């Protein structure tokens, strides 16, 4: 989905290409794009209808990517919309489906009803995660944003890696590599209900060694939107 200005997109693709070069030894399929849209006041219904029409464009264009959609339920950005795609190589990101036509359809159906509020490129971190890098498709998702003190990334990841065996349920960590303040990390936990997120709250606390390095933590909860997602299969539990 070409939902960002050209300059931002170019920066994201350049960063992905650089990080995927043999000199950096990156594995394929580790990149995710995570973006936020803010519907205009009083335009939520129009926005959702337009976004659904835009997904129809992707279907007709034969887009093979999967697009997740969540409406934020808890947090300062309540009722904003998050869309994301996971499991990509840099080559994937540099070759989206029909970019020019995508942008035309986006301008007609989406941009009149919302504001673009962020577009970030992340790298999945399997060494500190439990899961394969693409969230399960469940009713709720917890998004935890962690901003670190500069220069503490290695120590933070080492602390999480040491505690990886204690993780219960899918827990996916990503490092921001373009489009965000740095250093920033994102943790995603997909769960079947809000109760499941609350019940696991104490189990998902970060280790003390990691907490000592954090400048700011922010948590949101999203509700999965099947009609505003594309090419996904519902996960059963």
Topology:
Elements: H1 6-19, E1 31-39, H2 44-60, E2 68-74, E3 81-88, H3 90-93, H4 99-109, E4 114-124, E5 140-148, H5 153-162, E6 172-178, E7 184-191, H6 194-199, H7 208-211, E8 214-224
Antiparallel strand pairs: 1-3, 1-4, 2-3, 2-8, 4-6, 5-7, 5-8, 6-7
Helix pairs in contact: 2-4
What does this structure look like?
With 237 residues, this protein is an alpha+beta fold. It has a single domain, classed as 2-Layer Sandwich (Alpha-Beta Plaits), CATH 3.30.70. The chain has 7 helices and 8 strands. An 8-stranded antiparallel β-barrel has the order 1-3-2-8-5-7-6-4. The N terminus is likely disordered.
Entry keywords:
disordered N terminus; alpha+beta; 237 residues; Alpha-Beta Plaits; 7 helices; eight-stranded antiparallel barrel; 28% helix; globular
What's the short story on this structure?
This protein is an alpha+beta fold and 237 residues long. The chain is 28% helix and 30% strand. The chain has seven helices and eight strands.
CATH architecture: 2-Layer Sandwich
> At the third CATH level, what is the topology name?
Alpha-Beta Plaits
Distance between the termini: 30 Å
User: How many helix segments?
Assistant: 7
CATH class identity: Alpha Beta
- pLDDT < 50 runs, ≥5 residues: 3-26
**Lateral arrangement of strands in the main beta sheet:** 1-3-2-8-5-7-6-4
Q: What share of the residues lie within helices?
A: 25-40%
Tell me the major beta sheet. Answer: 8 strands, antiparallel, barrel
Strand content range: 25-35%
Number of domains: 1
The computed structural class is: alpha+beta
Shape: globular
Number of strands: 8
Quick check: average pLDDT?
88
| Radius of gyration over all CA atoms, rounded | 17 Å
> What series of H and E elements makes up the topology?
HEHEEHHEEHEEHHE
